[in-house]
Amino acid sequence: MQKILFLDRDGTLILEPEDYQVDSLDKVEFYPQMFFYLSKIVKELDYELVMVTNQDGLGTEEYPEDTFWPAHNMVLRALENEDIHFREILIDRTFKHENALTRKPNTGMVLHYLNDEEIDIANSYVVGDRITDMQLAANMGAQGIWLNNDPDLGGDEISEDSDTLAKTISLTTTSWQDLYHFLKSKGRRASIQRTTKETNILVHLNLDGQGQYNNHTGIGFFDHMLDQLAKHSGCDLSVEVEGDLHIDEHHTIEDTALALGQAFREALGDKRGIERYGSYLLPMDESLAQVALDFGGRPWLVWSDQFRREKVGQFPMEMTKHFFKSFSDQAQCNINAQVSGDNDHHQIEALFKAFARAIKMAISFTGGNDLPSTKGVL
């Protein structure tokens, strides 16, 4: 399903003039950093753009069309020069007192999107500078991003109180930089619940996080390895496991790897714009680990180790390879991993850290929106 950014124009793409009417070229002033960050959104994320704007009395004596279109067309040309294009431009011409069904915050202009089963309204956003834009988001069942430079704008046209609208507003800011980082972090997340008769696992993953972690599997050394995975990949990771540890550790480790692999597969989406490949050579004291991986859609594991012990803590050594194999199967990636050394604790930790660093490389953005494959699908 397609997600959409429904963008207001005045106060969002360009700044509002003092009289709130952009009827000449000299009144066009673009919102700071808008070009840079909206261009990144278009290239890196999977949103289409729709402009939705109220232009009070357009075409009347108070606001003749010949004063509107030169400025408006200049704005569009400037955006197109940065490869920023709109799926549709929707303009309501009515006055506030008319309360037309097409005037924001009413939904008349966007009804065809609400009735389109191919549009993901719940994960789409209305972006605007007026509280009426946030009311529109609520009326649509979408989410709101409020560029709130003046909280009073549009206050006399909303039907909800601020506390009710607060549930719709996902971000309040005055910065396009904040807007971009918010959408980027929202775009590559996954939550996986895996429940069997042997384990109950909940995984929360944010590929564009800060390396934060909160992992509780019941196996201390395994928690430590998952913490390393989060810290060194830059992903935020939370794993909660209720497993049948009274039998042994196998089901907990295997099922966690399966759920984690599924989370990566879902968070990566169609994989447009990512590096796809990652590799890392990592020393840890006397140990040396090398991991190369490809999020190419085909599971495979090539493995070499020099383990000697049966367990590290309560973590069975044999489950190291099994973790990576299970992850590969569900993430649909291939992994080539090898490690050498004298201390098994060091070897496993070096593997997880190298794995994390390879993931960090593979999921990073190239700055484009191309699919990194000649097949046309990953």
Provide an overview of this structure:
This protein is an alpha/beta fold. It has helices at residues 34-44, 65-80, 111-114, 131-140, 162-165, 176-187, 220-233, 250-268, 318-331, 344-362; strands at residues 3-7, 47-54, 88-92, 125-128, 143-147, 169-173, 189-195, 199-206, 213-216, 236-243, 277-284, 287-294, 300-304, 311-312, 315-316, 334-340. The strands form four sheets. It has a six-stranded parallel beta sheet with strand order 3-2-1-4-5-6, with helices on both faces.
Task: Write a short abstract of this structure.
It is built from ten helices and 16 strands. It is an alpha/beta fold and 378 residues long.
Task: Please render the helix and strand layout as text.
Blueprint: E1 3-7, H1 34-44, E2 47-54, H2 65-80, E3 88-92, H3 111-114, E4 125-128, H4 131-140, E5 143-147, H5 162-165, E6 169-173, H6 176-187, E7 189-195, E8 199-206, E9 213-216, H7 220-233, E10 236-243, H8 250-268, E11 277-284, E12 287-294, E13 300-304, E14 311-312, E15 315-316, H9 318-331, E16 334-340, H10 344-362
Parallel strand pairs: 1-2, 1-4, 2-3, 4-5, 5-6, 9-10, 13-16
Antiparallel strand pairs: 7-8, 8-10, 11-12, 12-16, 14-15
Primary descriptors:
378 residues, alpha/beta, six-stranded parallel beta sheet, four-stranded mixed beta sheet, 16 strands, elongated
For the biggest β-sheet, the strand order reads 3-2-1-4-5-6
Main sheet properties: 6 strands, parallel
Low-confidence stretches: none
The end-to-end distance, rounded to whole angstroms, is 18 Å
Taken as a percent bin, the fraction of beta residues is: 15-25%
C-alpha Rg (nearest Å): 25 Å
Structural class: alpha/beta
What's the shape? elongated
Give me the number of helical elements. 10
Mean pLDDT comes to: 93
Number of strands: 16
